[in-house]
């Protein structure tokens, strides 16, 4: 890795500088588009006290769920955490602090955080527990609540292909939160299935421009399916 | 006879118009996709970033990178597009979806909806539901009219934490199709063979029964 060349050779290098109590943003929706190997590297390092921001928390034994096993997560910011028995256990026992956030608000918090917008108004959650303690303002006769944006010390992202400059493309619905997380990390690490020569990814087809990306690493992925569903 | 899940989906499908962009929630709403009229083309929006959700795949076309909001493997139909979650919720929150169908635990006469949390029992999160009800003009809630114990779910006031406030105007239950206006449920259609008396008995919130209530036909 030097200058505009974002490539790193090892997962250890990929997460160099990750320490206890940091905030980590993670792409993925369910198990789709999750940065599997970066998560495994976080587990291997044993860092603790993390605040993790992601739409879901994996399942027992895979995805972000593995970070619960060794109590590495102190706080989770997510929109849906239902597929994980260990999560529920830690939530109910008080070991894990959980901030349930509407999915659209979570996406916009990351987008705004990466875009230098400190806060935004949304109608989502007005009149519900989500609005508790938040400023309310009326625009054109409708009430909105003020939500603050989110940034992280690290963003861990799963892409499909990247080039040396950190330009990234995503595959199908594995895109989801990944491009947003990519903009909002102080250090953004993207793991991909293939690193291609510059010029292979056409400029007008790039999803995440390399300016947002600090480190790129190639890996192999299990790509577990959460609900295998086929035509009857 | 109370409507089956399939019949509820069929009735909701009658609200579709050619060229509609539609978001279908988990459960009964997903079945609506099976009843799109043959002479009509609609685009199904999936909140995880897919516009143009297609059928379920076959064993040979299954793709771990192509799922819907319920985390099931799906396909992308002809004319589909894929985008990130912020774009997806721009469609939803920005009022671009023509019809939103979702389930609920409770609805009340003010148009409040509770569908995501039962304190102490179910605290899994709200997902995209709050954005869906905040962003949509045309929402149909599908739900059973009463619980298994006969407790009404159409209330004067929701008792559970809300998903959205004052946002519901149309409710389809297994017993009836109702609208909400000026602090009351208005009965518009009954399920075949279900009496108005049964509906009155099972609706705890204020209910108006106009003279021109129709019976659904299938």
Descriptive account of the structure:
The complex is a heterodimer of chains A (232) and B (218). Chain A has 232 residues and is of the alpha/beta class. Chain A contains 6 helices and 13 strands. Chain A has a 7-stranded parallel sheet with strand order 4-3-2-1-8-11-13, with helices on both faces. In chain A, strands 5-7-6 form a 3-stranded antiparallel sheet. In chain A, β2 (50-53), α3 (65-69) and β3 form a beta-alpha-beta unit. In chain A, α5 packs across α6. The longest helix of chain A is centred in the middle third of the chain and has 12 residues, at 103-114. The mean pLDDT of chain A is 96. Chain B is of the alpha/beta class and 218 residues long. At the A-B interface, α5 and α6 of A face α3 and α4 of B.
C-alpha geometry of chain A: globular
Task: Report the biggest beta sheet of chain B as strand number plus sense, adding barrel if it closes.
Answer: 11 strands, mixed
SS summary, helix count of chain B: 5
Q: How far apart are the termini of chain B?
A: 12 Å
Q: Can you tell me the overall shape of chain B?
A: globular
């Amino acid at each position: 890795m030097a200058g505009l060349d974002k490539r790193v050779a090892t997962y250890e290098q990929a997460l160099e500088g990750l320490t206890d109590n940091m905030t980590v943003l993670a792409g993925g929706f369910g198990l789709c588009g999750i940065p599997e190997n970066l998560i495994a590297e976080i587990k291997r390092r044993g860092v603790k006290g993390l605040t993790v921001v992601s739409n879901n928390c994996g399942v027992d034994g895979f995805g972000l769920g593995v970070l619960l096993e060794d109590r590495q997560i102190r706080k989770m910011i997510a929109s849906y955490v239902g597929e994980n028995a260990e999560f529920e256990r830690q939530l109910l026992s008080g070991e894990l602090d959980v901030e349930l956030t509407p999915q659209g608000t979570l996406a916009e918090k990351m987008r705004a955080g990466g875009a230098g917008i400190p806060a935004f108004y949304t109608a989502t959650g007005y009149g519900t527990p989500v609005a508790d303690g938040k400023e309310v303002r009326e625009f054109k006769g409708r009430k909105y609540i003020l939500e603050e944006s989110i940034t992280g010390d690290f963003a861990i992202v799963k892409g499909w292909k990247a080039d040396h400059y950190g330009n990234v493309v995503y595959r199908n619905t594995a895109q989801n939160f990944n491009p947003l997380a990519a903009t909002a990390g102080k250090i953004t690490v993207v793991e991909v299935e293939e690193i291609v020569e510059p010029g292979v990814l056409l400029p007008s087809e790039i999803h995440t421009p390399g300016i947002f990306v600090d480190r790129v690493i190639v890996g192999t992925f299990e790509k577990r399916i959460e609900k295998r569903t086929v035509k009857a | 006879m109370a409507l089956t899940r399939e019949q509820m989906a069929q009735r909701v499908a009658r609200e579709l118009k050619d060229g509609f962009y539609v978001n279908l929630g988990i459960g009964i709403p997903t079945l609506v996709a099976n009843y799109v009229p043959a002479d009509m083309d609609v685009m199904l929006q999936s909140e995880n970033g897919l516009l143009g959700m297609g059928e379920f795949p076959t064993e040979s076309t299954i793709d771990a990178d192509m799922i819907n909001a319920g985390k099931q493997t799906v396909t992308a139909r002809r004319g589909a597009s894929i985008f990130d979650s912020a774009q997806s919720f721009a469609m939803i929150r920005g009022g671009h979806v023509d019809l939103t169908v979702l389930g609920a635990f409770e609805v009340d006469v003010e148009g409040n909806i509770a569908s995501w949390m039962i304190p102490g029992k179910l605290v899994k999160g709200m997902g995209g539901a709050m954005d869906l009800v905040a962003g949509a003009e045309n929402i149909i809630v599908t739900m059973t009219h009463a619980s298994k114990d006969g407790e009404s779910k159409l209330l004067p006031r929701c008792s559970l934490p809300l998903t959205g406030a004052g946002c519901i105007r149309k409710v389809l239950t297994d017993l009836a199709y109702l609208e909400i206006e000026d602090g009351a449920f208005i009965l518009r259609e009954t399920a075949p063979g279900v009496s108005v008396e049964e509906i009155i008995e099972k609706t705890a919130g204020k209910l108006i029964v106009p003279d021109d209530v129709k019976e659904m036909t299938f």
